[in-house]
Write a structure and sequence with these properties.
alpha+beta, Thiol Ester Dehydrase, Chain A, six-stranded antiparallel beta sheet, two-stranded antiparallel sheet, 31% helix, 36% strand, elongated
Length: 156
């Protein structure tokens, strides 16, 4: 017997949003959610002076790029885990999901982060009972691909 196709209901979207918004670091960076679905997560970050790594050229700091890709990947892993654990009670599911964390993250910096707004998107490559693998991309406001990332997340 197979599970029905996973649908990210409004209730689950709210749960992921709430989880995301309760992380102080996300607020410090200024990350804002755009899209949450079973297929994709999209979020953006407005440029601000505190995020500059190369002050001569006004380029986004590499650590901010890595963080944004990690946050997008973690949100996608969380959604994948909701799908994998939909058979569990809400309390048991939340207990497992509270352990979500990054196991490994590889970032390829392709171009300098120039722009006023950066958008990260993430898609799930695979999810298992305990681990999810996610692919993320970061684009600047003119559509330039700035960086890509592959993250492995503990999700159960």
């Amino acid at each position: 017997m197979s599970n029905p196709p996973f649908e990210l209901t409004a209730e689950l979207q709210q749960a992921v949003s709430s989880f995301f918004e309760r992380i102080p670091f996300n607020k410090v960076l200024g990350i804002e959610l755009d899209e949450l679905s079973a297929q994709r997560v999209t979020m953006h970050l407005p440029m601000k002076p505190e995020l500059i790594g190369n002050f001569v050229h006004g380029i986004l700091h590499g650590g901010v790029i890595s963080s944004l890709l990690d946050v997008a990947g973690g949100a996608m892993a969380l959604i994948g885990a909701f799908d994998k654990h939909q058979h569990l009670s809400s309390a048991e599911r939340m207990t497992r999901l509270s352990k979500l964390g990054t196991i490994d993250l590889r970032i390829d910096y392709l171009r300098p982060g120039r722009g006023q707004r950066f958008t990260a998107s993430a898609v799930l490559l695979r999810t298992g009972n305990k681990v999810a693998v996610v692919r993320s991309e970061l684009h600047s406001d003119d559509g330039t691909l700035v960086a890509v990332g592959t993250g492995t997340y503990l999700c159960g």
